[in-house]
Design brief:
The complex is a heterodimer of chains A (220) and B (106). With 220 residues, chain A is mainly alpha-helical. Chain A contains three helices and two strands. By secondary structure, chain B is an alpha/beta fold.
């Protein structure tokens, strides 16, 4: 037990009492932080799941379209058609602080505003399926961006919650009980010392009286 | 200014090129891991990676999970959905709460 190792002094007692107060305060604050983080995280996780399912379904159907498009023309034509993309996407990332967790905010711009710039090929040698396929993929791009932001935030918050939860538990189940135990030990030890001093003094007084007057206070 | 990359086998990712994302077709795990590191050094903010490829270099991906950027996001490849992406969402719920209380039933 840790409490056997503390010095039973008043100074130590004051120190431990201060520590207990700080720990209790910290525990309360961290617990609040954990609860609020958890609340926000659960909302975010639900959103994340919904977005993911949407994006996965979108990509899946886009992939199907691409397979169909590929079937309608030769591999070379397809590769040539997609070789030099016209459009470009620029991403700017800033961060947002949610309950002391930094989460990213992604903002993207396309190089040209024209939505038709995703077709990087002339329409002469490609099948019309390819246009549809490219369009279906372009349609889910905004959702994919949102998913990236949401999923990253989820991951970051999950690890922060885990850390906070551990801190709360460590305070609640280790630090605070141990400090209480130590305080109790010191108080008892000090009380015991006081009692023993009292008894010693009484004894000494007795002996002095005996010496001086051959008189005992105690009635036999 | 960040860029966006897509990693995976050629058939799964060639379409993203037309949207203006940078596609990097890779097959092997080692090549993918090396590519991932170069991409991150070259300031790619979002890296989409196919589930099947991500499964091969999971260790590398986990390293970047606690950093603000890049966001490494799994997408299903042309071979189909492996459910890895959904599983990761569940895993983060599990990490935070202790057990999966949101999506446990499905």
């Amino acid at each position: 037990m840790a409490s056997t190792q503390v010095n039973p002094t008043r100074m130590e007692l004051t120190r431990l009492k201060k520590k207990l107060i700080t720990a209790t305060k910290g525990h309360k604050l961290l617990k609040d932080k954990r609860d609020e983080l958890m609340r926000q995280f659960l909302d975010l996780a639900r959103e994340n799941m919904a977005l993911r399912q949407k994006v996965e379904a979108g990509i899946l159907s886009a992939n199907k379209n691409f397979v169909l498009a590929k079937a309608g023309m030769s591999e070379e034509t397809l590769r040539t058609a997609l070789m030099a993309p016209k459009q470009e996407v620029y991403l700017s990332a800033s961060k947002k602080n949610v309950m002391s967790v930094d989460i990213p905010v992604f903002d993207y711009q396309t190089r040209t505003a024209d939505a038709n710039d995703i077709y990087s090929y002339g329409f002469a040698f490609t099948s019309s399926d390819l246009d549809g396929a490219v369009k279906s993929l372009a349609d889910i791009l905004p959702d994919m961006m949102e998913l990236a932001e949401c999923e990253k935030a989820c991951q970051l918050m999950a690890s922060e919650i885990e850390k906070t939860r551990r801190r709360v538990n460590a305070l609640e189940h280790v630090i605070i009980p141990e400090t209480r135990e130590s305080i109790k030990y010191i108080t008892m030890k000090l009380d015991e010392n006081e009692r023993s001093t009292q008894i010693r003094l009484m004894k000494v007084k007795d002996m002095m009286l005996e010496e001086a007057h051959k008189y005992s206070e105690r009635a036999y | 200014m960040y860029k966006i990359a897509v990693l995976g086998d050629y058939d799964s990712i060639y379409g993203f090129g037309t949207l203006g994302l940078d596609t990097f077709p890779v097959q092997e795990a080692e090549e993918a891991a090396g590519r991932l590191h170069t991409l991150i050094e070259n300031k790619y903010g979002i890296i989409y990676i196919t589930e099947s490829l991500a499964a091969k270099i999971e260790k590398e991906i986990v390293k970047y999970q606690e950093q603000l950027t890049p966001a490494i996001i799994l997408i299903p490849g042309v071979a189909g959905n492996t459910g890895k992406g959904v599983e990761n969402v569940k895993k983060s719920v599990e990490q935070a709460v202790g057990s999966d209380i949101l999506f446990g039933s499905n």
